[in-house]
Amino acid sequence: MKIAVYPGSFDPLTNGHLDIIERSSKIFDEVIVSVLINIDKNTLFTTEERVELIKKVVEPYKNVKVESFDGLLIDYVKQKNSNVIIKGLRALSDFDYEFQMALMNHKLDSNIETVFMMTNAKYSYVSSSSIKQVAKFGGCLKDLVPDIIIPSLTNKFRGD
Ligand code: PNS
């Protein structure tokens, strides 16, 4: 059974992330969407909120699981009996950061491979941080994040 781990902050999950999840679920037997427990980062959603929201979104994909993790990614990947990390790449601007992380993870454990998937062109401009700005100022979130996430996102900024 080939298990892949798709890690990230997912604050919030975007349609770009969902596209990567859907495509990787067709390649691997099981995909574990793994939400980083950000201890030193201010997130809009708590770890538990992110996990619950993503679980609702991925319900139709029977081979996709959602969990949270902390510590080193490679330790978590090994613990899950996996050796594949999935990452999405949008533009050249993602490359430096992702390249560094992939090399560091490979240095820490050369049995673990990072597999990059190019984003779907229609989501190449979508990021969690730009979505938070759109939500904060009341812009339209349709087609940017899964519909299930929109009410939770707008509620976070209600009263601001
Ligand atoms: O969505 P993000 O914020 O770009 O995801 C980053 C993530 C979760 C993949 C990265 O921060 C991570 O792997 N954190 C765990 C700590 C770790 O293993 N660091 C060593 C690799 S540089």
TrEMBL record:
GO terms for molecular function: ATP binding; pantetheine-phosphate adenylyltransferase activity. CDD domains: PPAT. Its main location: cytoplasm. It catalyses: (R)-4'-phosphopantetheine + ATP + H(+) = 3'-dephospho-CoA + diphosphate. The keyword Chloroplast does not apply. Pathway: Cofactor biosynthesis; coenzyme A biosynthesis; CoA from (R)-pantothenate: step 4/5. Its EC number is 2.7.7.3. The record marks H17 as: Transition state stabilizer. Residues 5-133 form the Cytidyltransferase-like domain. It is found in: Cytoplasm. Pfam families: CTP_transf_like. Homohexamer. Belongs to the bacterial CoaD family. NCBIfam families: coaD_prev_kdtB, cyt_tran_rel. This is Phosphopantetheine adenylyltransferase. The lineage of its organism: Bacteria, Bacillati, Bacillota, Clostridia, Eubacteriales. The gene is coaD.
